[in-house]
Each structure stands twice: as structure tokens, then as C-alpha cells.
């Protein structure tokens, strides 16, 4: 199985989390969005990451790829045969991708992508705007979900939903915009539980190694003309 993308993307990280948890080895080919790599573009005509292949079977979209891996492994991460649990997991992922991800996009670009991949200076005013206006509503919602559900996001039991949202919390971790424990104790406690998981730790190691490679490549290129 082959995964195309870079773990700066929370959607690539989501697939890595699932594969790590299930013990599924993936051959990862690091390509940025809209790469001209012909194998990647054959799968992802619009240039979006991640893209995935399992032999002749090819997929785009992190949710579809994750579900494929979970079903292939016969795992209960997606809720098993419980329709209510399955539905709740889908709702949590929609919140993750439709609300949490967009709120974190600007800070991830400014604090990680621009300095690490593009060699550009962070615009801290953009970060401040996100911290003051975009992030509080999603932090409030996530805090409420955890207060209502317990240790994990669906009825207190670990599931794919925790990876679907946890991959975006990793963006906050990488960009150093984690919510404050005094205001959001349930989020911080949940984050600590995620960090204790081998799958999450391996994903963050993979991501940090990718960042270091990008920094070295950028340094080798020298200053922009």
C-alpha cells in the first residue's frame, strides 16, 4: 500500500494515525499538494493530498482512505456494528474537517508551512486573528463534546473520531497554539491521552522528521533571490 502526501497536512496525518494504530505498513511518497509526480496525479487528478493505492485500487480523500484501511483490517474503530456509534463518529469527523481544520489552517500555514517549506516570514497578525476570533468557538465546541462524552469523543470509548479530531489538534501543537488548560481542561487532558498512544507518537515523530528534512532542503537552496 502506498500513501502520497506530506505529514504537514492534517489529512495525511489522519491516514498515518489509522495505519499506525492498525499496524498497517505504508510506503509513503512525500509529495506536496499539486505535485506534478505522474503516479500521484494519475490518482489525484486535482492534486489534492492524500492519495492512496493498494495495488490497482486507488483512492483520494483521507476519510475514504481511513475507512478502507479500517474495514480491510476488520477493526471496530468506525463503530463496529453499532449504527448509533457509527453515526456519531461521522458527525465528529465532519466537525473536525469542516470546522476545526479551517480554523487552524491559517496558523498552520503561518507558523509551519511558510517558514519550513517556503522560506517565508510568519505574519503574526494572521495568527492573532485566528487566536482571537476563529479558534475560540471551535475550542468551546470541542471542550463541550469532551465534557459530555468523557475520556474519548464518542461515549467515552476510543474510536476513529479521536484520530479524526486529533490530527487537527496536532496542527495546533505544531503551530504552538494549543488551548489554555485553565479555559479548556478537557481538551488538554484529551491531548495528553492522545500523546500517550503509540500511533500518535509515531505520527508526530514522522511529522517532525519531515519538517527537519524540509528545513535542510530549504537551507541547502540558500536565500531566495
TrEMBL record:
PROSITE patterns: GST_CTER (PS50405), GST_NTER (PS50404). Pfam families: GST_C_2, GST_N_3. Signal peptide: none annotated. SUPFAM superfamilies: GST C-terminal domain-like, Thioredoxin-like. InterPro entries: Glutathione-S-Trfase_C-like, Glutathione-S-Trfase_C_sf, Glutathione_S-Trfase, Glutathione_S-Trfase_N, Thioredoxin-like_sf. Keywords: Transferase. The keyword Transferase applies. The keyword DNA repair does not apply. Residues 82-218 form the GST C-terminal domain. GO terms for molecular function: transferase activity. Residues 1-77 form the GST N-terminal domain. CDD domains: GST_C_family, GST_N_family. Transmembrane segments: none annotated. PANTHER family: GLUTATHIONE S-TRANSFERASE 1, GLUTATHIONE S-TRANSFERASE-RELATED. This is Glutathione S-transferase.
